[in-house]
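Weekly puzzle thread! Below is a chain. First person to post its structure in C-alpha cell form gets bragging rights.
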Amino acid sequence: MDIQSNSNYPTINQLIPWIMSVLFFIYEFVLRTLVGTFQEQMMYELHMSFLTFSYISTSAFVLVYGVMQVPVGYLLQRFCVKKLLLIMVGISTISTFCFSFCHKTEWFVFVRMLMALGSAFSYVGLLFVISLVFNKNKQGFYIGLSNLIGILGAIFVAGPLSWIANQFSMDWRTLFQIVALIGVILLIAIFFVFPKLENEHKVSDYQIDLSVLKHAWIWILGLYAACIYSSLEYLSENYGQLLLIHRGLSRTDAGFCMSTAWLGYGVGCLLVGQIYNSIKRPILMMQLIAFVGFFVILSIYGIHHRLNALIIYFSIGLICSGSCFAYIYVRSNINQVHVPIAYGFLNAIVALFLSVLSPFIGGHIDLLSNIHQQDYAVVVALSLLMFLPFVFTTILSTFFKRSNAIAA
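Winning reply:
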C-alpha cells in the first residue's frame, strides 16, 4: 500500500500506522526505564549490589536490544510490518508479566532479555514506518516528533508513576503487572487498526544487503550517538535519582527531575529535525553539542536545590537529543533500501555501548564505600563520555570531508 502524499497535511492512512508505532515506542520506553525507577526498592528487597542491578536494569536489556537491531532491520526488509509488530508486542507483554513474579537474579536477567527481544523492534520499526508513509522532506520532522511523544513513557515512569506508587502503596511487582495489561490492550489495538504496509524496496528472500556498513563514517556516527545518548540512559536506569537524593532532594522530587530530563530530550529531538533542515553544516552543530554537554554533565555535582536540579537535568536531556543528528544525517546520505539496516546498526552500537558502560560504572561504584566518592565517579565518567563525541565529529569533518565521503 503506497500511502505517501504530497499534501501539507498528513492523511488518516498515514497517521494510523505512525500512531500505532509511536504507542509501541512509548511502551518500550516504559519497559526500559521502569526498573531503574524502583532501584532502591528492588535492591533492598532482593539484596542486590550496584553491579548486579546494572546487569538486570541495563545490560541484560540493551545487550539483546543491541544485537537484535540489524536482524530487525533485515526482517523489516522482508516481512510485513504489522505481523512483526504483533509478534514483538506480544513478546514484550508476556515477558513483562513474567518479570513481576521473578525472585532469583538468573530469572530476572532471562526475562529482561526476552523483554528486550520484543522491544528491539520499536524504534527501528517506527523509523521504518516513517520512511514508508511520509515524504523524505517531512521525515526529519516526524522523527523528531516521534521522539518527543515516545519519551512520554519515560517521563511518566520517572516522576508521576513513582508518585502514584507512593500514594497508593503499590510495589514494583504490581506495577509491572499493570504495565503488562496495558501491553495486551496495545496488542488488540494493533491487530484491528494497523494497516498492511508494503515496502517497495523489499529485498529477495535470501539477500542480506549489508553494503552500507562498509562506510567508516556510519560507524563513527554510531559511536557519536552512543556517547551523547548514554548519559541520559544511564542516569535514568541506574544512578540518576540517587545522585539527587544524595543532594537532599526527596525521592519524589528526584523522580520528577528525571522526568524533566526526558522532557528535555523530547523537546530537543523535535528541534533537531527542524535545525537539521535549516543549517548547512550539521557536523559543526554536532561538535557544539558535545562541547556544551561536557560542562552540563559536570554541573550535576553542583546541584543543591530542586530548581537547580530541574534546570540541569532538563539541559542534560536537551544535549542528549543531539544523538538524533546521527540518524537524520545517515538517512540523508544513503538510499531508501539501506535505511532499515543503517538505523538498526546505529541502534545496535548505542545499545551495545550501554551494555558495557553500565556494569563498568556499577562495578567501580561497588568498590567505593563513600557516597561522595561514588557520586563523583559517576559524574566524571559521564562527562568524559561527552568529550569523545567531539573527537568523533572532528574526525568526520577532517578526514571524510576531504575525501568527499559525506557532506560537511
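Puzzle host: Confirmed. Bonus trivia for everyone else. The first helix runs from residue 12 to 37.
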